[in-house]
Design a protein that fits this description.
- This protein has a single domain (37-51, 83-230), classed as P-loop containing nucleotide triphosphate hydrolases (Rossmann fold), CATH 3.40.50.300.
- It has seven helices and ten strands.
- It has helices at residues 50-57, 80-90, 106-117, 121-134, 150-162, 180-197, 208-213, and strands at 6-19, 22-35, 39-43, 65-70, 73-74, 91-95, 168-172, 201-204, 216-221, 224-230.
- It starts with 5 loop residues before the first strand and ends with a strand.
Length: 232
């Protein structure tokens, strides 16, 4: 059986922030690889560097030193326009605060990336309708975010994140604002997408509900990988 390709490759990554006259080292020579179809949680205490790491992998920021490759592309060597296109085409994002466009319907939010890519209308309609059905929002396509519950909004965010078949979905504390029932439903949806469609998920979390489901747990402490546990 052919091994899954390496999707994310972080090599000796450091990230230093300036806070006034002080320098804060968020990451200290961190290295890790993520292969296709993983369902992986990065965990660690507050301030450990896990959100910083997700921002770097998502091409939202640049490392101070070291390299991050996404599907072989060196993110640090890319210009702003290239990075923007890479984020649009190859990275899905699920945020703690949902980050949906308030003036758009659930359908329009889920369709947004495909529209930006210029996908044909019929292809967009078929894919978005299928995804909204898969995440349990059939019949709610025309509701705006303020007409949806928090759990429903996060399901729209998942549909949006996976609509363009990205290389990886980066989920930063996706269950933090959800009660147990909605968190369980959300994780069921993401796990099903991972197993059936081989969508690669990389979580930043301290939620035990996410860590129970993860098949790999990377613990980051003080900007370094402390442990890396693979589960069957």
């Amino acid at each position: 059986m052919e091994a899954n390709p390496v999707v994310v490759d972080c090599a000796d990554v450091t990230k230093v922030y300036r806070q006034g006259t002080q320098e804060v080292q968020a990451l200290r020579g961190l290295s890790l690889q993520v292969t296709g179809a993983e369902f992986t949680a990065i965990c660690g205490p507050s301030g450990s560097g896990k959100t910083t790491l997700l921002n770097l992998i998502g091409a939202l920021d640049r490392p101070t030193s070291g390299t991050i490759h996404l599907e072989g592309h060196d993110l640090g060597a890319m210009g702003q326009r290239e990075r923007s296109h890479l984020r649009r085409d190859r990275i899905g994002f699920v945020f703690q605060a949902y980050n949906l466009m308030p003036v758009l319907t659930a359908y329009e939010n889920a369709e947004m990336v495909l529209a930006l890519q210029g996908a044909p209308l019929e292809e967009r309609r078929e894919r978005v309708e299928r995804l909204l059905k898969e995440v349990g929002l059939d019949g709610l396509e025309h509701r705006r975010p303020d007409e949806l519950s928090g759990g429903q909004q996060q399901r729209v965010a998942i549909a949006r994140a996976i609509a363009s078949n990205p290389a990886v979905v980066l989920a930063d504390e996706p269950t933090a604002n959800l009660d147990s029932e909605n968190a369980t439903l959300l994780l069921d949806i993401m796990e099903r997408q991972n197993r059936e469609r081989r969508v690669t998920f990389l979580f930043s979390t301290h939620d035990p509900r996410v860590m129970e489901r993860a098949r790999r747990i990377i613990r980051v402490v003080d900007g370094r990988v402390e442990t890396d546990e693979h589960r069957t």
